[in-house]
Amino acid sequence: MNYTVMMPAAGSGQRMGAGYNKLFLKLDDKPILIHTLDVFEGDPACEGIILAVKSDEREYIQALLEEFAIRKVTALVDGGGERQDSVAACMKVYDKDGIVLVHDAARPFIRLSVIAELVKVANEHGAAIAGVRAKDTMKYAKEGVVEQTVDRGKLWVIQTPQAFRYALLKRSSEEAQAQGFLGTDESMLVERFGQPVHIVESTYDNVKMTTQEDLLFGEILLRRRQEDFNDSHRTRF
Ligand code: CTP
Ligand code: MG
Questions:
Q1: Which ligand sits closest to the CA of 160?
Q2: Which of 114, 124, 179, 237 is 20 to 30 A from 137, comparing alpha carbons?
Q3: Domain limits at 143?
Q4: Hey, which of 104, 212, 214 would you mutate to test ligand 1's pocket, going by the most ligand atoms within 8 Å of its Cβ?
């Protein structure tokens, strides 16, 4: 089943503290943005990528796409002040009625198997989001004092990709916009719209490169994946 990706890349990476968009930081010898795009570039089911960028980074990003032979970006749109605005800008140039996947440019470690499952479940049910089970004990607190211990069995830590039948995402997003509601992910818009959102179990290594320590983890993950790749391609004598 084919899909299109909407990828917000127009943030400023404040928490990373690099002084510029964190997506340009390199892991190994490639910018984070390119690592993420490479995943979709290599997935035959991905029909195209709509990338939201800051207008003053457009040229630099175009040069990166050229340098790293990324061919599937079908549109570069101007992102907005909030992540949700950047995704809305992507939606303006999408004119089909297929499955769309919203994925943060800052998550380069997403696995193809999770993508495939998300697309399948979204096609069946309308909306599917990637998540992992909470590992730690979770508590509600007010001003640093515990109010309640939450039932961890029901808690999920949510990631991207988030996959939708486009018509559902569009209607949910239009309603949120009309009401001035700002969510931290697309799922919230669909939830508000009253439609069920299914969770697809993802992996703990699908981390978002947010702060400096994520980069360390990212380097290790890349090395391990490279070793796994080498092991599986080693010739036997
Ligand atoms: N993003 C975007 N438009 C915005 C804000 C964020 O397209 N106005 C994108 C980021 O580029 C990133 C994704 O949304 O790929 C997830 O956001 P986040 O990890 O918060 O990145 P930043 O907003 O760049 O980082 P920070 O919040 O630390 O400033
Ligand atoms: Mg942000």
A1: 1
A2: 114
A3: 3-236
A4: 104
Mean pLDDT, each 10-residue run in order, the chain (237 residues) = 98 97 96 98 98 98 98 98 96 95 98 98 98 96 97 95 98 95 96 97 98 97 89 73
Please list the alpha-helical segments (H only) found in the chain: 32-41, 58-67, 83-92, 112-125, 166-178, 186-192, 212-233
Task: Give me the CATH number covering residue 97.
Answer: 3.90.550.10
CA-to-CA dists, residue 51 to 66, 68, 76, 94, 112, angstroms: 14, 16, 5, 11, 19
Ligand 1 within 6 A of 202 CB? no
* Total tally of structural domains belonging to the chain: 1
pTM: 0.96
